[in-house]
Amino acid sequence: MRALWAIANLTLKEYARRKLYVVTLLMMFIVAGTGLLANPFTVGTQSRLIRDLALLFIQLFTIFLGMALGATALSNEIERKSIYPFLSKPISRGTYLRGKCLAIAIFLTANAFVLGGLLLLIVRISAGETHWAIFSACLLIAVEATVVASFCLFFSTFMTVSVTFASMVLVYIVGNLSHVYALTLTADNPVMRVILRVLKSIIPYFDYFSIRSAVTHNLPVSPPYIATAAGYGLLYVTLAMLLAEAAFSWKDL
Amino acid sequence: MSALAVQTENLTKTYKGKRGKEIHALGELNLEINAGTTFGFIGPNGAGKTTTIKILIGLIFPTRGKATVFGHPAALPVSRKNLGYLSEVASYSPHLEAEELLLAFGTLHGMSAVDSAKNAKELLDLVGLLPRQKSKLGEFSKGMLQRFGIAQALLHNPKLLILDEPTSGLDPIAQREILDVLTRLKNQGITIFFSSHRLVEVQGLCDQVGIVSLGNLIFNGTISQLEAKQQNVPYIIRFHLKSQASAPRFGGESPRQIDGTLHEVTVQQRNLNQALHEIQSQGIEITSIVPKRLPLEEVFIRMITEHQKGDTLS
């Protein structure tokens, strides 16, 4: 456990010193900009519009960050050979991968919550409303981005960065197409039905993590739903990391 | 703990090249290195030195055969408990500070924070980097990175140190510093396995030498056993000549003038006694007799050339 944290801690320090938070600061301006964008509307509409747009930006940005960090976390270290001093220590390759994944998860969560906090403040100032549910939405965005990052880590054990990125974009699009799931029941071609069912069972259903609409329209989101969605995401993270460890354990470096 | 620090049995590594062509990086390598030995692993570039080291560290896996470190299979993390490693090109995240990276490596070795901090300070002092302990590694020169690499490899007081061409690409002063550190470690009884393509480094430091060529071990023994293989090394004799007319001739070759009366002549080892007798019989003052090349270097080059020629013919 100490080894895992040591790797995560070093990775987080590296992210901080690579000034990755500058990207978060940039995103904060965009989130703040939604307030100005929604200015001409009435107070109720304005608050909804800000929440809707800002949460969409936060989601897209955090997912993209998850893809970038997941796709490069391992490949960069292998390319510059800075992984050698780590793997020459008495730790398993799995511990190294898990440390990297933990750091990415912490970074993505911190990022989503900083942006969520800013959104809460903007809504409070512009509409006089306090929507704590924004943090629930941000939590699930962070989980979703961690799922994306862990899949990227898995892909990067046997793919190049660009192919990892392209593959993940494809997986993310398929995972967001809710009608893929409907098609598994209605497709005429039996082969297609099998393919769609396999896709349905392998690829995470990313829409499960999105409560943006509910938060925008002040609809209640039950804590058990959030817990289940987070658990669902963590299950996929575990699965992706197990696959990544299996693929990475016997890889020649 | 096993008395053998390193053991390989029929260690073979084959890579898949372009169009499925097999590339043999290592062929049935058998090595036994006792604890406390300083082993020099030498060979030209592409001979299989780094491949062997990477297998011992667990960075790559053998196609056939086995490798153990203190009796543990090299692929298992436990085999790296008593092992320190420095790669040919020491590479670290440029954003991390020297001391904080050492402390993290201490944690990976299961050391307490207090012990890690104490050892880190001592080792940074040993390699002359203590004043730069808070500096980011991206600000270090190549020589400093290599010295930092030695500190990280020694942090947990390992019983075996594996160094892959530790002086490669360093200036002569930095090379000397690294070799001095290694000599100190050898005197402390640490087993050292170090690869090089410079025989002169190995000669002064190692008890045992392994010469590898095209993935095969073509010599494994002591420096004296290697020296015994030398034959017909040319020698340069320097002497003072009063006049060119009195110059002795060696197989028709006249001495070459160096400076003023100082002359030199090159003779084969088998003719050395005869040449010396001839010079002294004429009352000529000899100033020096030196081998034209370092004898071991000669043996090394001959062994490699013969092996590669044989391999090409077969």
Written overview of the protein:
The complex is a heterodimer of chains A (253) and B (314). Chain A has 253 residues and is mainly α. Chain A contains eleven helices and no strands. The longest helix of chain A is centred in the first third of the chain and has 37 residues, at 43-79. The two termini of chain A are 25 Å apart. Chain B is an alpha/beta fold. Chain B is built from nine helices and 14 strands. Chain B has helices at 49-57, 98-108, 113-126, 142-154, 172-187, 199-205, 223-227, 272-281, 295-313, and strands spanning 4-16, 22-34, 38-42, 64-69, 72-73, 83-86, 160-164, 191-196, 208-213, 216-222, 235-240, 256-259, 262-267, 285-291. In chain B, strand 12 (256-259) and strand 13 (262-267) form a beta hairpin. The longest helix of chain B is centred in the C-terminal third of the chain and has 19 residues, at 295-313. The mean pLDDT of chain B is 86. At the A-B interface, helix 1 and helix 4 of A face strand 6 and helix 2 of B.
Provide the fold topology.
The complex is a heterodimer of chains A (253) and B (314).
Chain A: H1 2-17, H2 21-37, H3 43-79, H4 84-87, H5 93-127, H6 133-156, H7 161-176, H8 178-186, H9 190-202, H10 212-216, H11 223-249
Helix pairs in contact in A: 1-5, 2-3, 2-5, 3-5, 3-6, 3-7, 5-6, 5-11, 6-7, 6-11, 8-9
Chain B: E1 4-16, E2 22-34, E3 38-42, H1 49-57, E4 64-69, E5 72-73, E6 83-86, H2 98-108, H3 113-126, H4 142-154, E7 160-164, H5 172-187, E8 191-196, H6 199-205, E9 208-213, E10 216-222, H7 223-227, E11 235-240, E12 256-259, E13 262-267, H8 272-281, E14 285-291, H9 295-313
Parallel strand pairs in B: 3-8, 3-9, 6-7, 7-8
Antiparallel strand pairs in B: 1-2, 1-4, 4-5, 9-10, 11-13, 11-14, 12-13
Let me know the largest β-sheet of chain A. Answer: none
**The biggest beta sheet of chain B, please?**
6 strands, mixed
- Low-pLDDT windows of residues of chain B: none
Query: Beta-strand level of the residues of chain B, as a percent range?
Result: 25-35%
Number of helices of chain B: 9
**What is the helix/strand order of chain B?**
EEEHEEEHHHEHEHEEHEEEHEH
- Shape of chain A from CA axes? globular
- Kindly report the greatest chain-chain contact and the residue count on each side: A-B, 26 and 33 residues
Helix and strand sequence of chain A: HHHHHHHHHHH
Question: Which structural class is indicated by helix and strand composition of chain A?
Answer: mainly alpha
Oligomer: heterodimer
**Within the largest sheet of chain B, what's the order of strands?**
6-7-8-3-9-10
* Overall number of strands of chain B: 14
* Span of the ends, CA to CA of chain B: 42 Å
Measured as a percent range, the helix fraction of chain B is 25-40%
Strand content of chain A: under 5%
Overall residue-averaged pLDDT value of chain A: 88
